[in-house]
Write a sequence for this structure.
């Protein structure tokens, strides 16, 4: 009877209740039968599965379609046309990404708004991101369904110290962020997924759609990333969704946020201790007494649909009517160990220290960064090594750095002009970068943002060396619209009258530093033709160099303005001369 | 020093008439154009900066040797002429030296001649070119060219006739006769230059160019072969002229003299360097028609538009001349065109 103790407040049951044979329903309906064929979770929590499918689909669509830059010569307009939601949506939704980068860079990152948004949403649906949205989680579900179910020898039966590992990882990552070193990209959910797919599937996408000769050679850095990614999936052999339950630091952030939850899974006293819910829970969120481990529960509601007595309900957290007794049977909860916390923090700080020390030792030339990159120190602290820019870059100009640049540069993007040059009509990398390590620039700003400076080696450049006529770099620069390479005749011969011999010498390229943005198209051309095709040179005669004075790396402000300022400074040095027209003489 | 009419590259927008337009003027109109040109600055005058390296000797002094950082003439030749974007700067700089060297007649003369060449041969500003050429004196060839371009053949003919014979370094007068359509006089003057002038390579090269200009391909080939047949090369430009003759013969073979009627049925392959590597093309000829052009192998990475746009154009035009290259993929476009031209010319052998 619904009396004074009426159930008030929120009711958030999204599951499909267990079918109980009765006079009214002797046979399960078609819907149930169909869903059962798909799987137990489909049967019990179809809403969850539909949302998961949609989110994984959206993620794949964003990554492999929206970020795929080909199809039009105007890359910038094409991407703007495809991206109905930001390409970095999922990356921005990962709150660990925005929090760690904000801490490390000591600056507001635009995706922090998204983090706040998703955390607010998770007040209503605590840790709902993990249960419903996270595409890595869905991919892990797929892995567990295909492979994890069949391989049983790695299964762990009993819980260990590692059940709280995710909190230690989270604390370690945050500690290192506070120390100014960004490690979250290695372990946060969405970057791990994005990078893993970028290094495994994207080459296949490129190869099958445009030809495998377009795929740059793989390096050890990429191999390591793939191994880690497979490792994350492979953890599912120990327990389904092992990563999500025990390791993922993004999950740990949501778990911590569950302290502010408004809804909760509650068990009524009609529970018959059948253990079905415990067996099916993907997040290890049900204790031994069948009540809820509230920090782990994602309200996926898979348990709700399997309970044969309909004892599980999802209501507001202050509801207390007819609840099951706690502690019966006994639970053996593993508390958050102090040792673990300290070790986690210490590991984070130690790694940060190690990285910063290695930073000091590498004295090689700074890498060529994407156009619109923030200054190098900030870049290191904002780049989460997600790999989105590699996907969005046409012709694979941007490629991940391997171990050569040191651990601090691992998986960060660098431009590789020996492979391809930066397209003048493209500003994709800035559009997809979730943290602003590469600023999102309008196309006219990107065309003024210097990446580096092209420098001609006059000893090897064919016309400069008097070997043969060549103006590939100049033609390339002109057709790109930068017009930063001029000509100069070199080696002009003079006859006995002091007159130049017509056609003697060669017109040789000269870089106009004020106009060069370091796109590398010139280097690509010389490399492809003179080095690879004709074998005339061992190395391109025009090479783009990064470094102070050659690149524009600013956190704010206009690059067009910077160019104007540079020009004005130059004009200040030469006095203005008014040349009258016409002259009387 | 820079009196020869060799344009170093494509002319920038002409100020007097649009490219390709056939506009005629009367003598009076031409005189008016030249007079106005002398009085008014070109519209780009104020926007063009005065740029020159500080080491440059603005008095047109001649430090011995070829010194492009010191001597104006060498600077002009090496730095200004090869860059269309710098021609306006060159004019402004030369004008500046005119103001600086008021008392120096030698410098004034050198500067005036340079102004004429820059305007006429580089910037295609023919009224101003004529104005300055008249001021300099001794620049008849330049004037003839200006009169032709300004559309007054009458004045051009008059001036050209007044020369009597071609004693230019490159046979420019002969070429101008070809430009005016009088191949007979061109060829006559060429014979005189070859024998009396003792410069057969320049003479015959110019005659060949004149014939080619008027579409007389067979005669042009004859003259180019005469250039190559000259023994005892002793003139300073003989080697260069022979190279030019060879290049012209090659171009005629590839483009001008394509005759599908002389090509048997079959598929012909050739390749030409594209953006990344060689672009291979297969041209299929059937019943003396280009039936198909297929790109059989390539490594191009950039946008592939030209791969789909160029072959149909070649088939539609039944020619490799006058194909519109795909904007943004000109290198690949030209590779396809050149490879097709090569394939067809080898088939025609």
């Amino acid at each position: 009877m619904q009396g004074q103790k009426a159930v008030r407040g929120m009711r958030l049951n999204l599951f499909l209740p267990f079918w109980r044979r009765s006079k009214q329903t002797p046979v399960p309906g078609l819907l149930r039968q169909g869903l059962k064929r798909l799987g137990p979770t489909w049967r019990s929590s179809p809403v969850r599965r539909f949302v998961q499918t949609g989110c994984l689909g959206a993620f794949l669509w964003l990554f492999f379609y929206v970020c795929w830059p080909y199809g039009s010569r105007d890359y910038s307009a094409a991407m703007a046309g495809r991206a109905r939601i930001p390409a970095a949506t999922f990356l921005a939704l990962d709150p660990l990404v925005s929090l760690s980068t904000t801490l490390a860079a000591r600056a507001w990152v635009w995706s922090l708004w998204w983090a706040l948004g998703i955390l607010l949403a998770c007040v209503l649906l605590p840790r709902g991101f993990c249960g419903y949205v996270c595409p890595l989680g869905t991919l892990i579900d797929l892995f567990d369904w295909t492979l994890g179910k069949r391989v049983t020898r790695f299964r762990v039966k009993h819980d260990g110290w590692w059940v709280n590992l995710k909190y230690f990882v989270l604390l370690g990552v945050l500690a290192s962020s506070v120390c100014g070193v960004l490690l979250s990209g290695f372990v946060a959910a969405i970057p791990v997924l994005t990078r893993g797919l970028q290094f495994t599937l994207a080459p296949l996408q490129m190869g099958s759609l445009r030809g495998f000769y377009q795929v740059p050679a793989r390096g050890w850095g990429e191999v390591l990333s793939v191994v880690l990614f497979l490792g994350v999936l492979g953890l599912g052999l120990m327990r389904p969704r092992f990563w999500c339950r025990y390791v993922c630091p993004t999950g740990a952030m949501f778990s911590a946020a569950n302290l502010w939850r408004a809804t909760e899974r509650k068990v009524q006293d009609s529970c018959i201790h059948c253990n079905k819910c415990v067996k099916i829970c993907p997040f290890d969120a049900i204790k031994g007494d069948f009540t809820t481990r509230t920090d782990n529960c994602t309200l996926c509601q898979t348990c709700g649909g399997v309970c044969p007595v309909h004892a599980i309900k999802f209501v507001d957290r202050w509801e207390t009517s007819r609840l099951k007794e706690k502690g019966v049977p006994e639970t053996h909860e593993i508390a958050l160990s102090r040792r673990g916390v300290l070790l986690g923090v210490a590991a984070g700080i130690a790694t940060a220290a190690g990285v910063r020390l290695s930073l000091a030792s590498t004295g090689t030339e700074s890498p060529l960064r994407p156009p619109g990159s923030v200054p190098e120190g900030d870049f290191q602290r904002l780049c989460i090594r997600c790999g989105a820019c590699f996907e969005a870059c046409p012709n694979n100009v941007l490629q991940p750095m391997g171990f050569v640049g040191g651990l601090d540069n691992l998986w960060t993007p660098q431009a590789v002009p020996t492979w391809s040059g930066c397209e003048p009509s493209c500003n994709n990398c800035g559009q997809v970068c979730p943290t602003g390590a590469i600023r999102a620039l309008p196309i006219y700003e990107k065309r003024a943002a210097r990446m580096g400076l092209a420098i001609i080696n006059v000893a090897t450049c064919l016309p400069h060396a008097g070997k043969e006529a060549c103006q590939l770099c100049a033609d390339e620069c002109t057709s790109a619209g930068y017009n930063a390479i001029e000509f100069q005749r070199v080696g002009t011969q003079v006859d006995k009258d002091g007159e130049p011999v017509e056609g003697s010498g060669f017109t040789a390229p000269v870089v106009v530093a004020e106009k060069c943005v370091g796109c590398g198209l010139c280097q690509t051309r010389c490399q492809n033709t003179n080095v690879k095709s004709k074998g005339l040179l061992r190395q391109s005669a025009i090479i783009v160099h990064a470094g102070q004075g050659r690149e524009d790396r600013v956190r704010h402000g206009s690059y067009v303005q910077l160019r104007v300022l540079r020009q004005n400074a130059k004009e200040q040095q030469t006095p203005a001369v008014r040349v009258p027209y016409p002259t009387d003489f | 020093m820079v009196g020869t009419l060799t344009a170093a590259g494509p002319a920038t927008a002409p100020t007097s008439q649009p490219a390709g337009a056939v506009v005629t003027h009367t003598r009076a109109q031409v005189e008016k154009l030249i007079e106005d040109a002398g009085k008014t600055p070109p519209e780009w005058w104020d926007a063009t900066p005065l740029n020159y390296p500080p080491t440059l000797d603005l008095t047109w002094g001649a430090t011995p040797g070829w010194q492009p950082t010191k001597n104006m003439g060498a600077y002009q030749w090496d730095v200004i002429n090869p860059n269309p974007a710098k021609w306006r700067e060159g004019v402004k700089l030369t004008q500046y030296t005119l103001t600086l060297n008021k008392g120096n007649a030698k410098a004034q003369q050198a500067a005036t001649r340079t102004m004429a060449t820059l305007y006429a041969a580089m910037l295609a500003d023919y009224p101003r070119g004529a104005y300055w050429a008249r001021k300099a004196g001794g620049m008849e060839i330049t004037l003839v060219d200006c009169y032709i371009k300004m559309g007054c053949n009458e004045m051009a003919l008059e001036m050209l006739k007044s020369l009597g014979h071609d004693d230019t370094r490159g046979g420019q007068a002969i070429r101008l006769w070809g430009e005016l359509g009088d191949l007979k006089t061109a060829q006559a003057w060429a014979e005189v230059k070859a024998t009396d002038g003792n410069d057969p390579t320049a003479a015959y090269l110019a005659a060949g160019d004149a014939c080619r200009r008027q579409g007389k391909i067979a005669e042009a080939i004859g003259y180019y072969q005469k250039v190559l047949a000259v023994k005892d090369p002793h003139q300073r430009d003989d080697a260069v002229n022979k190279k030019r003759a060879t290049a012209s013969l090659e171009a005629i073979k590839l483009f001008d003299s394509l005759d599908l009627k002389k090509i048997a049925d079959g598929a012909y392959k050739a390749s030409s360097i594209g953006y990344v590597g060689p672009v291979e093309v297969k041209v299929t000829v059937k019943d003396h028609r280009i039936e198909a052009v297929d790109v059989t192998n390539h490594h191009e990475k950039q946008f592939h538009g030209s791969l789909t746009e160029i072959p149909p154009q070649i088939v539609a035009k039944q020619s490799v001349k006058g194909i519109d290259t795909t904007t943004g993929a000109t290198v690949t476009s030209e590779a396809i065109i050149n490879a097709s031209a090569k394939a067809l010319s080898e088939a025609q052998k």
Remarks:
- The first strand of chain B starts at residue 266 and ends at 273.
